Amino acid sequence: MRRHVLSLVAGAAALSAVASSTLAAQGTPAARHNAKVARLAIRNATIVDGNGTPARGPADILIVGDTIAQIVYLDPVAVASGRARRPQADAEIDASGKFVLPGLINAHAHLQSERAGRAQPYDYTLKLWLASGITTVREVGADNNQQLLAAREAEKSGAVSPRIHAYLRFGGARTPTQARERVRALKAQGADGIKITGLDRDILRAMLDEAKQVGLRVAHHVGVEETNVWDDIAGGTTTIEHWYGIPDAAIRSKRQNFPSDYNYNDETDRFRWAGRLWREADPALLDTVLASMVKASVAWVPTLDIYEASRDLQRAQTQPWFRDYLHPSLEEYFKPDPANHGSYFIGWSSTDEVHWKENYRIWMAALRSFEQKGGTIACGDDAGFIYQMYGFGLIREMELHAEAGFHPLKIIEHCTGNAAKVMGEEQRLGRVRAGYLADLIVVDGNPLEDLKVLYPTGTTKIVDGREVPTGGVQWTVKGGTPYHGPTLLAEVKEIVRRARAK
């Protein structure tokens, strides 16, 4: 596989000089940042489709309006002789030596207008997402449903933004009747889906039944509640977010062995003991739980990145992109403070980190088993909490999927085709395929060799004994509109600079 991919890159590079001169002779102008044209071509691309199949190329991708109209795989001999028939365009992106992927889909995202009581502009988050190659977000449970719907409508009207699927917060309901009324109200507001947290069993059953009747998907952030994943299996929840509820359902005694002074509302307590949960699950029963999830078509969005600070706090606190791109409101929110959800690192110990490392080992093994049984895993980062920045968190999520043992092609599928599937959008999103929406990214480097090339800041490599910069998403194309990754990142840096100056 590695030799095949490298040969594709070598073939694309060999074509580069000939192809570039051919394009120059055609006189087609280069694409410009945030300037949509009727016909946009991405030339000489090595394509990773998003369905788990190997890379192939070089190819020209023709975008007409907001749709992939044509993919033409190039014959090097025909290109060299000038006989290749190449689609005409009004502007083009030269992807020689680069990889083209479907736009990444963040299936567990948050668009936040403030952190720690301080304003944080949407522009900051939206541009970080696009700079990281994210063209679609499933926003799960914004604090303000109306603000989320307004942001979605702004995106549809042409704002610089990924496309937004709005999963509105369910809120409170004291009776099954109220739960059904709440679902119908969210449907009337225009929700794409519903985000729920812990609910009593009778409320959950009524809510899931009504959601199924009105055609709304449900993302469930399970807590330590009356319900667990057995209830989601019975009721037809679309996705389990994070992981609570799965190991709980595999504990023979029906409840984790909490100490007598445990307080769930004390987040230091909650997350300290969460780090001991997976080891209490019975392996045989866990296998039954995972098989039952697959049979019931309950998908899993694990957000491995968002708990990583629990196993390595120092790494989480010193990420290199904080220097230029961490907004001061987010920086304030990250400081340990019981008032801020997820800022629970008060008295965090090496013992806690050891327990969490073991937690990850078992959790990752469960993810592998789940996919082997036919389960659907999607990517989400839950950024805005626990030292994870928007966009950067999703790339870290991909690296952690690699640590869990998944092949890079499968990881890309998790974050594209699979994520589209959990949103019911697999017929138009998540693949590089004619007829699909033109949501694409052009990456400087080979993500199948090094996922770090997907970070918006790129990475480095050694050339002739010297460290040189490489990587980064050079272009994010959303619905046919090209956004230049380095330009977006420079704009984010300026937003942060101005905010810090205040």
Can you give keywords for this protein?
disordered N terminus, 17 helices, seven-stranded parallel sheet, 502 residues, TIM Barrel, eight-stranded mixed sheet, 19 strands, alpha/beta, 2 domains, Urease, subunit C, domain 1
Commentary on this structure:
The chain is α/β, with parallel strands linked by helices and 502 residues long. The protein has two domains: 2-102 and 435-497, Roll (Urease, subunit C, domain 1), CATH 2.30.40.10; 106-422, TIM Barrel, CATH 3.20.20. It is built from 17 helices and 19 strands. It has helices spanning 2-26, 76-81, 122-131, 145-156, 176-189, 201-214, 229-235, 267-274, 283-295, 313-317, 322-325, 328-334, 350-372, 392-403, 408-414, 417-422, 485-501; strands at 39-47, 56-64, 67-73, 91-94, 99-102, 104-109, 114-115, 118-119, 134-140, 163-169, 193-196, 217-221, 239-241, 299-301, 440-443, 459-463, 466-470, 473-478, 481-484. α6 links the parallel β11 (193-196) and β12 (217-221). α3 (122-131) packs antiparallel against α17 (485-501) and α5 (176-189) packs parallel to α6. The chain is globular.
